[in-house]
């Protein structure tokens, strides 16, 4: 796993593809909203779409506010409470 982004409000960790795991056969991303104390794991087509969107966003280095606003779009989907972060 590799931390891709870490701000006071959000953290994004990339998980590489793993042949021995059906859920991670294509890799995935964990997105954590620190202020909400909830997270989301995405994989498959949603992870591919997320990756393309992030690549477009970082063509010109965004600041924390821009990146946090982008990640804020996922807040409603974050249903997993944080236990150890």
Give a description of the structure.
This protein has 85 residues and is α+β, with helices and mostly antiparallel strands. It has one domain. The protein has 2 helices and 5 strands; from the N terminus they run ββββααβ. It has a 5-stranded antiparallel beta sheet with strand order 1-2-3-4-5. Strand 3 (28-33) and strand 4 (38-43) form a beta hairpin. The two termini are 15 Å apart. The model has no long low-confidence stretch (mean pLDDT 87).
Keywords summarizing the entry:
globular, DUF3567 domain-containing protein, alpha+beta, 85 residues, 2 helices, DUF3567, five-stranded antiparallel beta sheet
Give the topology, please.
Elements (H helix, E strand, L loop, with lengths): L1 E5 L3 E6 L12 E6 L4 E6 L1 H13 L6 H9 L7 E2 L4
Antiparallel strand pairs: 1-2, 2-3, 3-4, 4-5
Provide a brief overview of the structure.
This protein is of the alpha+beta class. 26% of the residues lie in helices and 29% in strands. It has helices at residues 45-57, 64-72, and strands at residues 2-6, 10-15, 28-33, 38-43, 80-81.
């Amino acid at each position: 796993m590799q931390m891709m982004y870490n701000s006071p409000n959000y953290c994004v960790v990339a998980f590489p593809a793993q042949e021995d795991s059906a859920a991670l056969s294509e890799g995935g991303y964990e997105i954590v909203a620190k202020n909400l104390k909830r997270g989301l794991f995405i994989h498959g087509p949603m992870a591919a779409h997320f990756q393309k969107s992030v690549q477009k966003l970082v063509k010109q280095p965004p600041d924390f506010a821009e990146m946090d606003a982008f990640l804020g779009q996922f807040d409603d989907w974050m249903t997993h409470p944080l236990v150890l972060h």
